[in-house]
């Protein structure tokens, strides 16, 4: 620190005298300074990274096998035992690879947000959670954890979002998620659609077309 003249100038209200006191303290406790320096990179990484869990192998308390709004198992039309498997079953309905890719992106973003920010599975989300997710899409925070330039998903630099979403993109994402939960209700996998009635000011007022441009999203078809 003492080897960087003027290091204190960008720090508001510190001043030359305050900087001198800091330098004196650091010089008196060199071991403490070294330990703090070694901890800083670790803390920055752990605070900013999205956990690199495999979404098809989540911890039992987050995978949805015991989700709060799971329907009775004996009446379910799916072989899925957890939320990721249920999402995969829904995606398998769509023949267009472009549509399936777009829907997967929205479903997996929500799944990540649920387990990282809400610490609960997809099948435990409430309408309050859906409203919070709408706000999150407009302003994904913390930014260092959720946003960044395109990177391979297998790298630690990958982030789910490039930045804040527009009203139109947010409306599209919510429409996809309404369709997902609507289909899961029809299959008796869950009993609640948390995105029902959640709208976006300035977003699309009609159901968005699939990415191939053929027809609107409806539950279970493409």
UniProtKB/TrEMBL annotation:
Entry's Gene Ontology BP terms: DNA integration
Keywords linked to the UniProt accession: DNA integration, DNA-binding
PROSITE patterns, per database record: CB
Keyword Iron: no
Keyword DNA-binding (UniProt): yes
Gene3D superfamilies: 1.10.150.130
Name assigned to this protein: Integrase domain protein SAM domain protein
């Amino acid at each position: 620190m003492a080897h960087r003249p003027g290091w204190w100038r960008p720090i508001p209200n510190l001043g030359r005298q305050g900087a001198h006191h800091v330098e004196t303290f650091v010089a008196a406790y060199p071991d403490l300074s070294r330990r703090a320096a070694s901890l800083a990179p670790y803390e920055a990484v752990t605070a900013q990274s999205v956990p690199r869990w495999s979404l098809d192998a989540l911890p039992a308390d987050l995978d949805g096998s015991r989700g709060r709004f799971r329907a009775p198992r004996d009446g379910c039309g799916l072989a899925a035992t957890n939320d990721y498997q249920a999402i995969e079953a829904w995606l398998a309905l769509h023949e267009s690879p472009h549509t399936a890719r777009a829907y997967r992106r929205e479903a997996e973003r929500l799944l990540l947000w649920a387990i990282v920010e809400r610490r609960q599975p997809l099948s435990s989300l409430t309408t309050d959670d859906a409203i919070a997710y709408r706000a999150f899409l407009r302003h994904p925070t913390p930014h260092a954890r959720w946003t960044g330039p395109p990177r391979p998903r297998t790298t630690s630099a990958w982030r789910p979002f490039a930045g804040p979403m527009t009203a139109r993109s947010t409306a599209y994402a919510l429409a996809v998620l309404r369709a997902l939960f609507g289909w899961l209700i029809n299959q008796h996998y869950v009993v609640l659609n948390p995105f029902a009635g959640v709208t976006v000011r300035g977003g699309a007022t009609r159901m968005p077309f699939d990415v191939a441009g053929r027809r609107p999203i409806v539950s279970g078809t493409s």
